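It would be a great kindness if you could assist me with a short task in structural biology. A protein sequence and the C-alpha coordinates that stand for its backbone fold form the material at issue. I should value your view on which stretches of the chain appear to form regular backbone elements. The record follows directly beneath this note.
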Amino acid sequence: MGCFQSIEEAKFAETGFSYTLSLINGKYKMTILYCLFEFEVVRFNELKRYISTISYKTLSSSLKELEADGLVVRTEYPQIPPKVEYRLSERGTSLIPILDALCEWGDRHRDDGPTCAASNK
Protein backbone atom coordinates (compact mmCIF):
# COMPACT_ATOMS: atom_id res chain seq x y z
CA MET A 1 0.00 0.00 0.00
CA GLY A 2 0.94 3.67 -0.06
CA CYS A 3 2.52 5.89 2.55
CA PHE A 4 -0.69 7.66 3.58
CA GLN A 5 -3.07 6.84 6.42
CA SER A 6 -6.12 8.02 4.50
CA ILE A 7 -7.21 9.21 1.10
CA GLU A 8 -7.68 12.72 2.50
CA GLU A 9 -3.90 12.99 2.93
CA ALA A 10 -3.04 11.49 -0.45
CA LYS A 11 -2.50 13.34 -3.70
CA PHE A 12 -2.57 11.16 -6.81
CA ALA A 13 -0.37 13.61 -8.75
CA GLU A 14 2.47 12.94 -6.28
CA THR A 15 2.53 9.17 -6.80
CA GLY A 16 4.98 7.15 -8.86
CA PHE A 17 1.98 5.66 -10.63
CA SER A 18 0.87 9.11 -11.75
CA TYR A 19 4.37 9.95 -12.98
CA THR A 20 4.64 6.72 -14.96
CA LEU A 21 1.23 7.31 -16.53
CA SER A 22 2.26 10.83 -17.51
CA LEU A 23 5.12 9.36 -19.56
CA ILE A 24 3.18 6.62 -21.33
CA ASN A 25 -0.24 8.26 -21.45
CA GLY A 26 -1.58 8.65 -24.94
CA LYS A 27 -3.33 6.40 -27.37
CA TYR A 28 -0.17 5.13 -29.10
CA LYS A 29 2.81 5.70 -26.80
CA MET A 30 2.85 2.21 -25.33
CA THR A 31 2.47 0.75 -28.81
CA ILE A 32 5.42 2.81 -30.06
CA LEU A 33 7.56 1.72 -27.11
CA TYR A 34 6.64 -1.92 -27.60
CA CYS A 35 7.38 -1.71 -31.34
CA LEU A 36 10.80 -0.18 -30.67
CA PHE A 37 11.54 -2.95 -28.20
CA GLU A 38 10.50 -5.64 -30.63
CA PHE A 39 12.26 -4.27 -33.72
CA GLU A 40 15.05 -2.29 -31.94
CA VAL A 41 15.80 0.40 -34.57
CA VAL A 42 12.88 1.69 -36.61
CA ARG A 43 12.38 4.51 -39.09
CA PHE A 44 9.39 6.87 -38.99
CA ASN A 45 7.59 5.40 -42.01
CA GLU A 46 8.12 1.87 -40.72
CA LEU A 47 6.42 2.87 -37.48
CA LYS A 48 3.61 4.49 -39.46
CA ARG A 49 3.07 1.30 -41.47
CA TYR A 50 3.26 -0.88 -38.35
CA ILE A 51 0.69 1.28 -36.51
CA SER A 52 -1.58 1.81 -39.49
CA THR A 53 -4.30 3.65 -37.55
CA ILE A 54 -1.99 6.44 -36.32
CA SER A 55 -1.83 9.74 -38.21
CA TYR A 56 1.50 11.24 -39.24
CA LYS A 57 0.90 14.19 -36.92
CA THR A 58 0.11 11.99 -33.90
CA LEU A 59 3.10 9.75 -34.56
CA SER A 60 5.38 12.76 -34.87
CA SER A 61 4.13 14.41 -31.68
CA SER A 62 4.21 11.11 -29.73
CA LEU A 63 7.80 10.47 -30.78
CA LYS A 64 8.80 14.02 -29.83
CA GLU A 65 7.21 13.61 -26.39
CA LEU A 66 8.83 10.20 -25.85
CA GLU A 67 12.18 11.67 -26.86
CA ALA A 68 11.72 14.70 -24.57
CA ASP A 69 10.91 12.33 -21.68
CA GLY A 70 14.10 10.39 -22.35
CA LEU A 71 12.38 7.16 -23.40
CA VAL A 72 13.30 7.23 -27.09
CA VAL A 73 16.52 8.17 -28.87
CA ARG A 74 16.26 9.87 -32.26
CA THR A 75 19.25 9.58 -34.59
CA GLU A 76 19.36 11.77 -37.68
CA TYR A 77 21.81 10.96 -40.47
CA PRO A 78 23.10 13.80 -42.67
CA GLN A 79 22.15 12.49 -46.09
CA ILE A 80 19.68 13.12 -48.86
CA PRO A 81 16.95 12.05 -48.52
CA PRO A 82 17.11 12.52 -44.75
CA LYS A 83 17.29 9.35 -42.69
CA VAL A 84 16.00 9.31 -39.11
CA GLU A 85 15.93 6.27 -36.85
CA TYR A 86 14.32 5.73 -33.47
CA ARG A 87 15.27 3.30 -30.72
CA LEU A 88 14.56 2.88 -27.05
CA SER A 89 16.84 4.61 -24.61
CA GLU A 90 18.07 2.75 -21.56
CA ARG A 91 15.30 4.49 -19.63
CA GLY A 92 12.72 3.40 -22.22
CA THR A 93 13.99 -0.16 -22.12
CA SER A 94 13.45 -0.19 -18.36
CA LEU A 95 9.69 0.17 -19.04
CA ILE A 96 9.53 -3.05 -21.06
CA PRO A 97 8.91 -5.38 -18.09
CA ILE A 98 5.86 -3.26 -17.26
CA LEU A 99 4.56 -3.40 -20.84
CA ASP A 100 5.32 -7.11 -20.99
CA ALA A 101 3.31 -7.67 -17.79
CA LEU A 102 0.36 -5.88 -19.42
CA CYS A 103 0.70 -8.14 -22.45
CA GLU A 104 0.88 -11.28 -20.32
CA TRP A 105 -2.19 -10.19 -18.37
CA GLY A 106 -4.03 -9.67 -21.66
CA ASP A 107 -2.95 -13.08 -22.93
CA ARG A 108 -4.30 -14.75 -19.79
CA HIS A 109 -7.64 -12.96 -19.98
CA ARG A 110 -8.47 -12.99 -23.68
CA ASP A 111 -10.19 -15.74 -25.58
CA ASP A 112 -8.01 -16.18 -28.66
CA GLY A 113 -4.61 -17.09 -27.16
CA PRO A 114 -1.21 -15.50 -26.53
CA THR A 115 0.45 -12.86 -28.70
CA CYS A 116 3.20 -11.42 -26.48
CA ALA A 117 6.41 -10.87 -28.37
CA ALA A 118 8.60 -9.54 -25.56
CA SER A 119 8.22 -12.66 -23.44
CA ASN A 120 9.74 -14.63 -26.33
CA LYS A 121 12.94 -12.55 -26.33
Summary: The longest helix spans residues 96-109.
